Every structure is written in C-alpha cells, then in structure tokens.
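Hello support,

Our group uses your service weekly, and this is the first time we've seen a run hang past the timeout. The protein is Carboxylesterase NlhH. I'm not sure whether the cause is the sequence or the server load. Input pasted verbatim:
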Amino acid sequence: MFDPELTLAAEAQPRFDYSQPTTARSRVARMGATLVTKRYWKELESAVTYRDLTIPQDADGPPIPIRIYTPNTAILSGGAVVFFHGGGFMVGDLNVEHYRCLKWAQETRTIIVSCDYRLSPENRFPAALEDCTGCFGWVADNASDLGIDPSRIVVAGVSAGGNLAAAVSLFNRDHGLRPACLQMLVYPALDDRMTSRSMNTHTDQPGWTRADTKHMWAHYLGPLRDNVSPYAAPSRASDLSGLPPAYVLTAEFDPLRDEATDYALRLTSADVAVDFRNFAGTFHGFDVVKESRLAQYAMNDQIFAINRVMEATAKPKPTLVSATANASL
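Update from on-call engineer: The timeout came from a worker crash unrelated to the input. Re-ran successfully.
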C-alpha cells in the first residue's frame, strides 16, 4: 500500500509510451521547460546560481552540455557532485532534475554539475557512458578553476542516471582513473536481464513499469544482447571490489527495487562501504513529491549522505603556532 501522502501523486503520475521515445522525449522536455520558465522553484533559485555551458569530449564525440549549480554562500563544502538524470536513457535533459540539483546545492553548500548525456536509441551504449565519464573527468581536471578538491567528487544519478553513476565507478576503477569519493545510486536501473522478483511482481506501478524497462534496454543496447558489458548493465560485473563507497536508495513498489538491493549486498560482500535505504510505501521517483513528508525525508537523507562524505573527506586546516608559543619551545 502506498504511503497516504503519496497516493494522490501516484495517481497523477504521467504515463509515457517508451516504444516511441522521441514522442516521450518531447513531452518530458516541454514539462521540464515549463516548470523552469515559470520559476516553479524560485525560492531555491534565489539561493543558487546556475549556468549552462558545453565542455569538450575527450574522444570523438560531440561537446557535452552541462549545468553548474553554485550555492550563493560565502563558505562552500569544497567538493562537487557530478549528477546524471534519469529517463531510461531515452528522455530527459538539464531541466528534468532541476529541482533536485537546486535542493542539493543549497542544502549541501556543494557545487553540482549536471550532465546532459546523449540519448538512445539514436545514440546507443556506450555514447551516454562516454559523455558521463567525460563529464566526471572534466570536473576533476578543472577542479582548480571550479574551486573544488578533485579527491572530493561524488558521482550520483537517479534511475538510468544511477546506472551511469555505477558504470562510471566501474570504468574509472578498471582504467586507473580518479575515483569518486562516493557513488550515489538512487533507484538505479542496473540489470538488463529483468529476472528479479520485483521486476515480475511490480509490473505496472506509477513512475516506472516492467514494459518501460523492456523498452529502455531495447533502445539502449539494441538487438544484439549476447555479450552485454558491465559498463552497460553494472549488475553483470563479476568483481565489485575496490569501488567507491556507495549510497543506494530503493522504493518498495519499484520494479527496479531488487536489482538495486542485490547490487548493494554484493558491494557489501566485496568490502565496499554501503548505506542502503529502502522506503516502504513508495514508487519510482517518489522523492521529488514536495507535498509528502516521506519524500522530504528521502531527499533530506540524500542531502545528509552528501554532507557526511564532504565532512569526512575534508582536509584538516593547518594548526598555526603563535610566535610566543614558538619562542617558548
């Protein structure tokens, strides 16, 4: 049963036909643009400055659009969050998670860099991963200009973006690249095999369905599925050791619940520190329902996780020894 404060939101969740991703993409883009244009989050926008720009792609891919959120405060955390939106690899842009990025930036005093990666089916795997690894690498390489510590970068994502955050963590480990200090996986899509219990019992829920998942993997991976890379479906990775600490959040009535739960358990078994949260009475995407206390709690929990890692990784300030004390030694 859904949490009572989420019931109306569950009934109002829009349905998209992901067999036609370009049509769904247009609908999502219009919704997001309308909210941003009308300044639906004007109170948050008054506390956070954001700017859009494009960054170069290291490989042969096109430039990557990003949005940088900077809290309007004299004291920043000194770290950054590289964030990937959801949308089944098929839909979404820099507006679709504008609220979450504003909220995270304000409440954590941390720079948030949101990545507008290429979408499928026009750009199948590994295009999105190339953009996301490129964005993470750009933030690390430009840490001085951004005013951050490159060792204190969180990689985060929701849904398909959670997949990409996990995949960036795997890719960076395997290629000897700079690791994130935390991987935040919010109701992530991780397993293209679609065999979990939740995938077969929570088939037609608000926010995301089994049919949506089937379309997602078909568009992202294409028809050839004999040898799926763990960078495309992180659950296929045989070795999870040596990965960054993780924060994993799931929703009770989400078909993706069990694959994320299994991934969290496997990370734990590989001696990776994991904070795991399953929110009862919730559905995929519930945490942006501002009218729900449970959603607010989940959002605040994510904020706490970012603040916690920023505090834990902060470098101690040097101790100053006064001239008088020094002379007496």
